[in-house]
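Handout for the seminar on molecular recognition.
Each group receives one record of this type.
Step one: identify the two inputs.
Step two: read the structure output and locate the region that could contact guanosine-5'-diphosphate.
Step three: write two sentences on what you found, then compare them with the reference statements printed after the record.
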Amino acid sequence: MATNRTFTMIKPDAANAGNAGAILKMIEEAGFRIVAIKKTKLSAETAGKFYEVHKERGFYGELCAYMSSGAIFPAILEKENAVEDFRKLIGATDPKKAEAGTIRAIFATSIEANAVHGSDSDENAAIEGAFFFAETERF
Ligand code: GDP
């Protein structure tokens, strides 16, 4: 069942560059409501758990090191058709291929340091949101 919620993280490159405010402004202006948000830092082990689905991919080790290299802002977002619309707002994984005006086209620096995460399905949005937030932290 579609929940109209998705999950995002502002990744270490964007958080460290001071772009969290500008990215959240784009997200809110695109019609997403922030249900939950915090600033935190993953350990390499926790990043490994979050990205477990990618553990067979060649870049898994690098990805875990990168995602634990600095603070992140995980958040749950709400909007009709949230998962699909948010993927459109962030653009392609590789910023060189991301459409102009998308968050990754504007803020990402590489295919790895690509500014933001966006869930790829309602099911993963629910799993990823639960990874960071209790029900009592959602409003
Ligand atoms: P997404 O759904 O657009 O985030 O892309 P994927 O699920 O395919 O990959 C997850 C994350 O792994 C991406 O957002 C990047 O941070 C990273 N990533 C993807 N492809 C590569 C790659 O070829 N090399 C490296 N180093 N990282 C990658």
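Reference statements: Residues 122-132 form the longest helix (11 residues). The first strand starts at residue 5 and ends at 10.
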